[in-house]
């Protein structure tokens, strides 16, 4: 088999070993690990869900009946996933919930009730790892903090991803994605480029990018904790991952730049301070002239990159401005702010009577690297994503036809996979409480009635 | 030290009302705006979100309204004639909610408000029934 694979061209080789239709025929990397997710919103949930995609049995604990707040967040319209729970079928779960809760089991528990504590400790005893993202000290106040968990299970790997961390002057502040971007310094260079007399205007990344990316750091830390426990020490670990601290990791060279020279990195909008040409240019025509949707009526945009001397000269000849090609023949010349203020408008002038698709075709033929900015509808129908299985339709047992992100990376032997986006609140109470801690069906019903679970 | 100027906010010197000039309308705007507190018109200019001409005597009679305003003692000044409607306040964005019953490619979804009778356990009866009988959809 291996011999046969080695003779394949690389594309066919990748297609074969990463076959998206054979994911469920292969074993899972984290099969046998159990993770408790005591989380809400995005940061904590996605950290656990990343492990769930790799095969860990992730059990998410939510507030009885209504579930965690993210189920009831934006977007506010009738696109919700009904029902939110069997107690409340008239409400739905927001689509914003699904990206951070793949492959999990959903149970309910009111940690604050004395009767719930024993059940919680029972679960902790049979768990390998746990994630929290409540405010600092909340679980200790409820007597279910790391100290208590460690006592019942010294092998527990516990990750707490709080906003500002457990110590430091800001420890009591809550955090959320945009605050993480602000506190980490990311806004100092995202946004509109500076004018001659101003410092520009900041712009947030609209999606919860800090939550999703720092959740990945948390799941990496948990894997490290599990590795250390299982191969080195035999004991658990307690992690603290502060969201705002994580966001400083995404400021790349701005910090060493300041430390070395005192230069404070500034905003430069859709252009680039390091290389030119490398930016987003506006095309003059919309790709959907007959659409009545505002997102489609707007003119298209395209990324263009031509920073080597040869590519730049080629681009300037293409747009009919060889004079600029000669004027800014070296990269040092054209990366200057004043040069960029001349070069990008010249490119946009060339694009003013073109759609982004036409522009892309022209650039491709000329050998210039370019990529039109896709709307989410275009990304959803992009054959590259669909063929690779990155995005796609799947038939959800609870919610019907769902289009969603699947898995973002491939593994040949034990690949990650999407089993389900999420489920209603408490819909796995029977299975988990019976299978994991041995409660009877009557006990479960009684505790549900008392809203302990 | 660079002077820090708040470009998209204006405290009316006459009535002390604080006018919030929303970026959607004022980002690149040249013209009059009306103070929500005393209805006085001012002329100003913005470029790329920065105010390049400070409020001065109006030019002409056309104007636009602030996005939001409040009095000196922080009471909101809102409503027709005082502040502008939200930028996306059109039927497209704020129309009557429409329950989805099928996905964008026309297949069935559990995406409409349900009653306890609609459920089979936690899942929608209609979907579980279809699964039981093996319908392909």
Shape of chain B: elongated
The value of Rg of chain B in angstroms is 25 Å
* Count, helices of chain B: 3
| Biggest pleated-sheet summary of chain B | 3 strands, antiparallel
**What is the strand arrangement across the widest sheet of chain A?**
3-2-1-4-5-8
The CA-CA distance between the termini of chain A, in Å, is 51 Å
Number of strands of chain A: 13
SS content category of chain B: alpha+beta
| DSSP helix fraction of chain B | 10-25%
Q: What low-confidence regions of chain A span 5 or more consecutive residues with pLDDT below 50?
A: none
- Write down the Rg of chain A: 26 Å
SS content category of chain A: alpha/beta
Please state how the strands of the largest beta sheet of chain B are arranged side by side: 1-2-6
Order of helices and strands of chain B: EEHEEEEHEEH
What overall geometry of chain A do the principal axes of the alpha carbons give? globular
Task: Show unreliable segments of chain B.
Answer: 133-137
Number of helices of chain A: 20
Give the oligomer, counting copies of the same chain as homo and different chains as hetero. heterodimer
Distance between termini of chain B? 66 Å
- The fraction of residues assigned to DSSP E strands of chain B is 15-25%
Q: How many runs of DSSP E, i.e. beta strands of chain B? A: 8
Give a quick set of tags describing it:
A: 453 residues, alpha/beta, 3-stranded antiparallel sheet, 13% strand, B: 137 residues, alpha+beta, 3 helices, elongated, disordered C terminus
């Amino acid at each position: 088999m291996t011999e046969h694979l080695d003779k394949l061209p690389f594309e066919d080789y990748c297609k074969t070993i990463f076959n998206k239709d054979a994911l469920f025929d292969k074993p899972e990397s984290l099969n046998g690990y159990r993770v408790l997710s005591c989380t809400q919103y995005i940061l904590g949930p996605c950290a656990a869900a990343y492990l769930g995609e790799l095969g860990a049995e992730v059990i998410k604990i939510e507030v009885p009946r209504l579930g965690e707040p993210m189920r009831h967040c934006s977007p506010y319209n009738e696109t919700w996933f009904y029902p939110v729970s069997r107690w409340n079928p008239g409400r739905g779960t927001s689509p914003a919930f699904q990206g951070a809760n793949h492959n999990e089991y959903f149970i309910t528990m009111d940690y604050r009730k004395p009767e719930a504590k024993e059940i919680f400790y029972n679960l902790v005893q049979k768990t390998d790892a746990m994630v929290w993202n409540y405010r600092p000290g909340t679980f200790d106040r409820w007597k279910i903090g790391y100290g208590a968990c460690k006592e019942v299970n010294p092998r527990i790997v516990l990750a707490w991803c709080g906003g500002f961390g457990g110590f430091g002057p800001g420890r009591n502040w809550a955090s959320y994605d945009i605050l993480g971007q602000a506190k980490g310094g990311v806004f100092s260079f995202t946004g509109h480029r500076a004018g001659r007399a101003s410092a520009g205007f900041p712009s947030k990344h609209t999606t919860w990018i800090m939550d999703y990316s720092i959740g990945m750091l948390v799941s990496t830390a948990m894997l490290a904790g599990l590795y250390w426990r299982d191969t080195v020490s035999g004991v658990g670990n307690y992690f603290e991952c502060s969201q705002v601290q994580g966001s400083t990791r995404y400021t790349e060279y701005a910090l060493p730049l300041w430390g070395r020279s005192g230069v404070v990195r500034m905003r430069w909008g859709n252009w680039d301070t390091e290389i030119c040409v490398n930016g987003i240019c506006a095309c003059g025509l919309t790709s959907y002239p007959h659409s009545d949707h505002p997102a489609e009526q707007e003119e298209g945009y395209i990324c263009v990159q031509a920073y080597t001397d040869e590519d730049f000269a080629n681009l300037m000849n293409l747009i009919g401005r060889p004079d600029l090609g000669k004027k800014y023949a070296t990269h040092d010349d054209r990366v200057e702010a004043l040069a960029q203020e001349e070069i990008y408008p010249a490119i946009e002038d060339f694009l003013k009577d073109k759609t982004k698709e036409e522009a892309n075709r022209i650039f491709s033929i000329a050998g210039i690297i370019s990529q039109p900015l896709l709307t989410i509808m275009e990304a959803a129908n992009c054959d590259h994503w669909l063929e690779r299985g990155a995005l796609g339709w799947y038939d959800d047992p609870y919610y019907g036809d769902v289009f969603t992100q699947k898995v973002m990376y491939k593994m040949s032997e034990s690949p990650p996979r999407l089993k389900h986006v999420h489920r209603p609140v408490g819909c796995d109470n029977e299975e988990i409480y019976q299978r994991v801690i041995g409660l009877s069906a009557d006990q479960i019903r009684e505790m549900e009635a008392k809203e302990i679970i | 030290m660079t002077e820090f100027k708040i470009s998209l906010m204006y405290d009316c010197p006459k009535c002390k009302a604080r006018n919030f000039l929303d970026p959607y309308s004022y980002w690149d705007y040249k013209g009059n705006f009306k103070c929500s507190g005393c209805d006085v018109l001012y002329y100003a200019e913005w470029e790329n979100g920065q105010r390049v001409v400070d409020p001065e005597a109006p030019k002409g009679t056309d104007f636009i309204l602030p996005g939001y305003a409040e009095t000196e003692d922080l009471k909101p000044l809102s409503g027709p004639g005082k502040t502008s409607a939200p930028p996306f306040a059109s039927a497209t964005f704020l129309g009557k909610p429409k329950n989805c019953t099928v996905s964008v490619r026309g297949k069935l979804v559990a995406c409409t408000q349900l009653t306890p009778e609609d459920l089979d356990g936690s899942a929608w009866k209609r979907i579980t029934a279809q699964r039981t009988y093996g319908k392909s959809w």
